[in-house]
């Protein structure tokens, strides 16, 4: 295991539901990331946090809302999603924001929006 | 804008050597990272090249040529467990974060 855990591992939700994805890293890192991985598409960066402050928001729809209460935990709150949001959502961390090139990933949450 | 090109699929036999290429177009290049991802698994960091040349780590090596905007991942003595997707990644234009290539699916056959 890589030291980054994600829950739940699988999630099926309707378009009107509200759910949250959780990520926890046990590596003592200061930067955390959310990615979306869809079939046949490159990993897409969604959000970056450094020391609990959001560094980058890559033009992500507002139906995705991140939260970073401390440097070990990262959440992605989901609301009124669309079927095209079905994907694997990966969390990652790095030692610091400057060590972005070496990231440690969690196993992901496989999200299906019905 | 940025772009990374890598082959979508590569097939090789057990015990062989395989090279996965990555060409990139980006402004402000800082280095090239490589990640491995098994089906259903998390991407795992393999290597990072900031300078030209070959970096060796066990059976895996990574090469970078900044003048050619090109790098490759070399896997030697292939094993069945090496069957996975391999992604190259560069620093994004926006700052200290990664832009990933589309990935190369490596299939190792007996």
Compose a concise summary of this entry:
The complex is a heterodimer of chains A (114) and B (110). Chain A is an all-beta fold and 114 residues long.
What class do helices, strands and sheet pairing of chain A give? mainly beta
> Structural class of the secondary structure composition of chain B?
mainly beta
The fraction of residues in strands of chain A falls at: over 45%
The percent range for helix content of chain B is: under 10%
SSE blueprint and pairings:
The complex is a heterodimer of chains A (114) and B (110).
Chain A: E1 4-7, E2 10-13, E3 18-25, E4 31-37, E5 44-50, E6 53-57, E7 64-70, E8 73-79, E9 87-94, E10 104-105, E11 109-113
Parallel strand pairs in A: 2-11
Antiparallel strand pairs in A: 1-3, 3-8, 4-5, 4-9, 5-6, 7-8, 9-10, 9-11
Chain B: E1 3-5, E2 9-13, E3 18-25, E4 32-37, E5 44-49, E6 53-57, E7 60-65, E8 70-75, E9 84-91, E10 98-100, E11 104-109
Parallel strand pairs in B: 2-11
Antiparallel strand pairs in B: 1-3, 3-8, 4-5, 4-9, 6-7, 7-8, 9-10, 9-11
Provide the descriptors you would attach to this structure in a database record.
heterodimer; A: seven-stranded mixed sheet; globular; B: mainly beta; 11 strands
